[in-house]
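An instance as discussed:

___
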Amino acid sequence: METPEKTRVAVVFGGGSTEHAVSSVGAADLLDALDTDEFEIVPIGVTREGRWVLSEAARSGGPSTELVPAGAAVTVVDAREGVARLRGIDVVFPVLQGAFGDEGTIQGLLEMADLPYVGSGVLAASVAVDHDFSRKLAVAAGLPVAPYVVLRGSAEVTAADRERLGLPVVVRPARGAGGVTGVTDWAALPAAVDLARTVDAKVVVTAAPAGRRITVGVLDTGASDGPESSVPGEVDGDVVTAPADLDRAVERRVRDLAVEAFVTLDCAGLAMVECTVTPAGDILFDRIDTMPGFDPGAAFPVVWQAGGVSYRTLISRLVKAAVRRGTGLH
């Protein structure tokens, strides 16, 4: 009896953003979780300079479960040549975070190479990382969003903006990690804006009403009637507790909002949606992440495990869904 051929999965990690280390840690856990009875694993590291580090496995088809296989011959090439050398790969799992990674760039590269990949396509990935445009689409779809203002160039928050926003506010670069500051006194605003501009010339200043930070995972494997929402988790700093202790009606509304945000941005595969639940019971959309972290303690695995979906099962479902979906328009 013939042994079924394994699906070849290239896990791409690292990258040139400030979240290089986060991506690499998540990749290590993901590689451990991929079932070697089902999948043949090809790890591909991307340096901070954007060069692709290909092991012999990536070029010849030999399996590997190490980030940098011990003693393996490696080749360092640019991204275009790196993709061209991925002969025989069935699907790519890009766990890149931040700039030149989860914001549409690698998705576009893989689309051009006709390589299926886990997660959202170019449009959803690029819009999700932009706190300006993701909010614009949310508002257009009728999702509740806290008041905000976008600063371009040397623009400043006007007196009318301050009246509309109130305090406290959160100042963040529209795109990219870092440079986020909570402001409780308008006197501190200029310094917060300057810090955000070290990351991105476009800055978003958002009202920060009191409330609980809630996050929900959304999964779309194409095997059901539509995207599924996880149990909600509550965010406290870097810790996510799931399930969050919410009234049943509020939980339902939070989960519905997460799915609606996923559909609004035309996401695929997976996403994490964050919102604020105010003391009055209002639910405000905050952000969506189309490629969340994948270490076992990260929000996406935690909320799904709280609902009974194991880490390994989650990864397997995502990879299989990406193979079925393929590339191009669907």
User: Anything to note?
Assistant: The chain is about 30% helix and 25% strand.
